[in-house]
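Thread: Newbie trying to understand structure tokens

Hi all, I'm a second-year student working on a class project, and my supervisor (Dr. K.) asked me to get a predicted structure for one chain before our next meeting. I've only ever worked with sequences, so writing a 3D structure as a token string is new to me. If someone could post the tokens and maybe explain what I'm looking at, I'd be very grateful. Here's the chain:
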Amino acid sequence: MSSMNATHGLVRFSVRLVLLVTVVVLLSAKKCSSLKWASKEVVAGWLYEDGVLDRDSVDLRNAGVSRSDVRDGNCSMDTIVALQSLFNATNGARWVNNTGWGMSDAMCCSWYGVQCHVHSHHAVVTDLELSNNNLNGSVPDELAQSISLQQALISLHMAGNRIKRLPENIGLLTQLAVLDVSENSGSLNLPASLGNTSLVYLHVGNGTEHPPYEGVELIQVPVSLSSLKKLRVLDLNHNSLDGMLDPGIFQLHHLQVLDLGLGNVGIVFPATGFSGVRKLQRLNLDYTLVYELPENLGVLQDLQSLSVQAMPGVYGGNIPDSIGQLSSLTYLSFAQNYNLKGPVPAAIWNLTNLEYMDISYNMAKGTWPDTFEHHQKLAYLEMGAMFYGNLPDILGQLTGLVHFGIRTNQLSGPLPVSLGNLTKLTFFNVAGNGLNGTIPESYQSFLPNVKGYNCQMDSNNFACPIPKFVPANCDATCSGVDV
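---
Reply by user tm_fold:
Sure, no problem. This is what the structure looks like when written as tokens:
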């Protein structure tokens, strides 16, 4: 008993150093998986910011903790029991790599996927990296029952496996800061006890382009997630959420990434809208039924990416006028939102930092700005909404464009000569409009560089004959004579 108490005392004594050395794991461990929305350096920075790591000891990142040092330490018995339980419960014999697992070796830090900190020849496990390793089964309760893991485990990576269930007592792992169980097949639970952890990064969604039934499916987000006050990344992409999200999620003041897209239905924002998540940098609501976007969208001054694309999309309401206040935005998509019928706010053209803009295939009516001289960063532009009239000459100011698409609008009149300034174009689609007149000779500056189906000029009324410099793959159609 005294030996066990001494071991537990040593674990408690080592907790501070364990957390510090986690920087080494996050920054340099070759086995550590790639985080989807944040680099390992960024995650380590968050841990510093929250006081989990001590900046005064940052030199430990270069302290030379090596795999040979790790192998000299023995793991505690409760750690061995917990890890062996995980191995047995997830069909460890069929893992892609199970080196060291399934044996009575007390030096568990030499096992595949186990990262440790060693202090006085005793080791504590800080990170489990078992992504894409063919784990098949449920994570056992024993993993969270280990006192050593409760005090030291900071990151748990199990993405790309066949995990069926997380333990209901996972909240006992109070130091857990990174949890990635994305791209697991079947339906996966989110235990309510997760609210007791120290998560800064939570990724549960499938993260692929497959239908929801092929990936992780959730029915409800537990209210306890609103207790994760340190959370920066909440990625529930490709799940089956329903009903109103707990308003507390929108009070996670440190949240920087909120991904609810691809397969989620019935998202209703709270009355406070986005006022509690002003640090958001990325918001993804793709393939999500959003009943109405909050009018205070403009409070997200740090937002860099906003995507609300593909059916069923936004149900009711308009694009808020306050979108023009998103001065940091570089990526914007409302593509294929067939239920979006309100006008495209003129304020949208205030977004001069945009690099990608797609508002194609919806019923929202739009107008062009007076000038594009301040939109030199724009490289991708799809305007297949309900735009009317002639194409403006100011489009020639977008000299950084690589992709230009205005398919199936209500456009008419001739193509502007100024588009010949867009010499970087590799995609050009003006099909399905009522454009007429002669195709300008200035288009020789880019049309030869637009290959295959990337060039589409059909279903228009250009003057005959089509100029010889227009490639056949553009399929330009003509009728009548040049006027």
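A couple of things are worth pointing out once you decode it. The first helix runs from residue 2 to 28. The mean pLDDT is 81. Feel free to ask follow-ups in this thread.
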